[in-house]
Amino acid sequence: FRSGKARLASPSAPTVPVGEGPLGIAISPDDRQVFISDWYSHQVAVLDAATAEIREHIPVGNSPAGLAVTPDGKRLVVANRDDNTITIVNLADRAALATITVGTAPFGVTVDAGRKRAFIANVQSSDVSVVDLDTFKVTATLPVGSFPYAIAHVPESDRLFVTNQHDNSVSVIDLPTGKTLETVTVGDYPEGIMLHPDGRHVYVVSWFNGEVYPIDVVTLAVGSGIKSGNGSRGFGDFIAPR
């Protein structure tokens, strides 16, 4: 994405110009639309997945990074890193429903459909904001490690797993109590994290040592690192369903 282009996941897929600084990416539940945040133009590009064409742009805040679409496909949550806000967009008319102040330098975003919450990793304040998607209010601010980057939510246990870049760790938070259950050591400079579709493990991408680490979501045991190449990074969904 440093070239300002996006490539669809196929060797023969086209490369699509999307702006000067494409970063976050999210896909609508029906797989028909792809949303791409553009860091420098302060907007989100909407890509038609069938034609690989940009159909429109949605204005948001400064330096949009992480994106998440609610599972009903009705709303898009955008982290505006340099505004310390998130924008919640109504996808029916592309209008902003709310702009909400969160922590400092929000980056990674994930949503919990069942309880209508969004979780935002705030890099420079080293915490996670919990936002009610009905009231548009911040309901909790949860401290984590240094420079949190991305978040995975485990619905069954209602736990958050948050990568802490500068601590080489993952914070495990019990949401009903708001307490950190454990801080798990992983590889160097962990970034992307995602819950596997089977719900048994989260996978953590460590940038500086080029490995991916599985963490058991029940026992919190860390498995052996899986070699993934130099400079491996993950942001958004990176595990394909079978």
Description of the structure:
The chain is mainly beta and 242 residues long. It folds into two domains: 1-101, 6 Propeller (Neuraminidase); 144-242, Neuraminidase (6 Propeller). The chain has no helices and 22 strands. The protein has strands spanning 5-7, 15-17, 22-27, 33-38, 43-48, 53-59, 64-69, 75-80, 85-90, 95-101, 106-112, 117-122, 127-132, 137-143, 148-154, 159-164, 169-174, 179-185, 190-195, 201-206, 211-216, 226-227. Strand 7 (64-69) and strand 8 (75-80) form a beta hairpin. The chain is globular and about 45 Å long. The model has no long low-confidence stretch (mean pLDDT 92).
Blueprint (SSEs and pairs):
Elements: E1 5-7, E2 15-17, E3 22-27, E4 33-38, E5 43-48, E6 53-59, E7 64-69, E8 75-80, E9 85-90, E10 95-101, E11 106-112, E12 117-122, E13 127-132, E14 137-143, E15 148-154, E16 159-164, E17 169-174, E18 179-185, E19 190-195, E20 201-206, E21 211-216, E22 226-227
Antiparallel strand pairs: 1-2, 3-4, 4-5, 5-6, 7-8, 8-9, 9-10, 11-12, 12-13, 13-14, 15-16, 16-17, 17-18, 19-20, 20-21, 21-22
Corresponding CATH superfamily of the largest domain: TolB, C-terminal domain
Could you say which structural class the secondary elements and strand pairing correspond to?
Answer: mainly beta
Largest sheet: 4 strands, antiparallel
Number of helical stretches of at least 4 residues: 0
Approximate shape: globular
CATH topology of the largest domain: Neuraminidase
Strand elements, count: 22
Give unreliable regions as ranges: none
Helix content range:
under 10%
CATH class of the largest domain: Mainly Beta
